[in-house]
Design a protein that fits this description.
There is one protein chain. By secondary structure, the protein is of the alpha+beta class. The protein is 51% helix and 13% strand. It starts with 11 loop residues before the first strand and ends with a helix.
Length: 179
């Protein structure tokens, strides 16, 4: 519904669980935020007011979501943004949610420092990934999945170092040499 997790709410959510390169679970749903959503937010996503009014609330979908996160890393494009909203929704329900995160914006910046942009559209163009329904949760999550699948297929040393650096804060000699 907005840009700040403290005051905004989730209206569209999707999780794709991948283990060893195989999708082992997925969930997607619109979410009734219990508040008015700006027309600009709805225009961007293509979601209608009526769809949100009929959608389940976050507390009605959390039971389907949590098993997908067990023992997993929370991966997203601009992960801090999505993670903050998910944590805030859980906090509103009196639940704690803590997971390691991997941000594919940061990963793209590490692996492609010469690229002028690292937004999702640029990532899609750079890697030949097609997404028919941008700014919707499941298609955008699938773009992230495809990006990571491509990186995994390359089995590149820089990729392994970049992911380790982002997840664990370890320095990466090959990346430092390129800078």
């Amino acid at each position: 519904t907005g840009l700040r997790a403290a005051t905004g709410r989730i209206i569209d959510i999707a999780v794709i669980r991948v283990e060893n390169g195989v999708v082992t679970g997925a969930f997607q749903s619109l979410v009734n935020p219990g508040m008015t959503v700006s027309d600009s937010s709805l225009e961007l996503t293509g979601i209608g007011h009526e769809e949100l009014e009929r959608a389940p609330t976050f507390d009605e979908v959390i039971g389907d979501l949590l098993p997908l996160f067990e023992g997993a890393v929370f991966v997203a494009h601009n992960a801090a943004f999505d993670y903050s909203f998910f944590k805030a929704e859980c906090r509103r329900m009196g639940m704690a949610f803590e997971r390691p995160t991997l941000c594919t914006v940061q990963l793209s910046r590490l692996l492609y420092p010469g690229s002028p942009s690292h937004n999702l559209d640029s990532l899609m163009a750079r890697h030949g990934i097609v997404c028919a329904d941008r700014h919707r949760a499941y298609p955008d999550a699938d773009v992230v999945r495809q990006f990571l699948e491509q990186l995994h297929a390359q089995r590149n040393e820089d990729t392994r170092h970049a992911i380790a650096q982002l997840l664990y804060g370890k320095s990466s000699t090959p990346l430092l040499e390129r800078s």
